[in-house]
């Protein structure tokens, strides 16, 4: 199975900050990597698919990059509604999620 | 609008069984692979099982292999998860989800809660 390791596991940031979350795969997964946002009590929401494609309706402050084993999700200017938990997910082989990154208010 | 509606969750004793269902509308269900994902209370997302559009390919997470069975009925646009020999570690919200490869299709159910307790 392909392991995905996210870092950090949690972070505290202020509104307006630039935030970067990384996801490392245990082997190359090409660009078969999605990013999701999840808020408490809700199903996850797709933000980025195929490593760098912005999902329709998602604000442009969200961006994704990477290929192979190393990927990043960047929020260019954190907004109050962005405080949530973020997960990477691979679809190269079976499916796997990273352990999540909780973004909290500083 | 794509809608996924899970049902079948509830309270079950350790060693018991449950069958989850997911009714799908708004997409051509028979064209898409589907997945079950679970989330234990306060924990992260865990992929559970995958089934291809024709049911020809099925995968399971090691944690449920041999105990859970995924299936689908394309005529009814429905996905199922038969869960046997349940343990307390299986307690979670179970979601049906699309989790497609390299596409913008994003579909999740609202989740159904499975509680395993004596």
Can you give keywords for this protein?
heterodimer, A: 106 residues, mainly beta, 7-stranded mixed beta sheet, 11 strands, 0% helix, B: 118 residues, 6-stranded mixed beta sheet, 4-stranded antiparallel beta sheet, globular
Structural description of this entry:
- The complex is a heterodimer of chains A (106) and B (118).
- By secondary structure, chain A is an all-beta fold.
- In chain A, 0% of the residues lie in helices and 50% in strands.
- Chain A has no helices and 11 strands.
- Chain A has strands at residues 4-7, 10-13, 19-25, 33-38, 45-49, 53-54, 62-67, 70-75, 85-90, 96-97, 101-105.
- In chain A, the strands form 2 sheets. In chain A, strands 2, 4, 5, 6, 9, 10 and 11 form a 7-stranded mixed β-sheet that branches.
- Helices cover 0% and strands 47% of the residues of chain B.
- Chain B is mainly beta and 118 residues long.
- Chain B contains no helices and 10 strands.
- Chains A and B meet through strand 4, strand 5, strand 9 and strand 10 of A and strand 5 of B.
Chain-wise SSE layout:
The complex is a heterodimer of chains A (106) and B (118).
Chain A: E1 4-7, E2 10-13, E3 19-25, E4 33-38, E5 45-49, E6 53-54, E7 62-67, E8 70-75, E9 85-90, E10 96-97, E11 101-105
Parallel strand pairs in A: 2-11
Antiparallel strand pairs in A: 1-3, 3-8, 4-5, 4-9, 5-6, 7-8, 9-10, 9-11
Chain B: E1 3-7, E2 10-12, E3 18-25, E4 34-39, E5 45-51, E6 58-60, E7 68-73, E8 78-83, E9 92-97, E10 112-116
Parallel strand pairs in B: 2-10
Antiparallel strand pairs in B: 1-3, 3-8, 4-5, 4-9, 5-6, 7-8, 9-10
């Amino acid at each position: 199975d392909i392991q995905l390791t996210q870092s950090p596991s949690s972070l505290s940031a202020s509104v307006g900050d630039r935030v970067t979350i990384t996801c490392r795969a245990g082997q190359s997964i090409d660009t078969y990597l999605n990013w999701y946002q999840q808020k408490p009590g809700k199903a996850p929401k797709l933000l980025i698919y195929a490593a760098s494609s912005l999902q329709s309706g998602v604000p442009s402050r969200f961006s994704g990059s990477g290929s192979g084993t190393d990927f990043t999700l960047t929020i260019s200017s954190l907004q109050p509604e962005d405080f949530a938990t973020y997960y990477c997910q691979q679809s190269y082989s079976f499916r796997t999620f990273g352990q999540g990154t909780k973004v909290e208010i500083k | 609008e794509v809608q996924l509606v899970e049902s079948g969750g509830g309270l079950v004793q350790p060693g018991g069984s449950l069958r989850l269902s997911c009714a799908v509308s708004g997409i051509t269900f028979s064209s898409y692979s589907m997945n079950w994902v679970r989330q234990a209370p306060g924990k992260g997302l865990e992929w559970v099982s995958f089934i291809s559009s024709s049911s020809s390919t099925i995968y399971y997470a090691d944690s449920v292999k041999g105990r859970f069975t995924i299936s689908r009925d394309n005529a009814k646009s429905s996905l199922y998860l038969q869960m046997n020999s349940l343990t307390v570690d299986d307690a979670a919200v179970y979601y049906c989800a699309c989790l497609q490869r390299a596409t913008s299709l994003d579909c999740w159910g609202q989740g159904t809660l499975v509680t395993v307790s004596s």
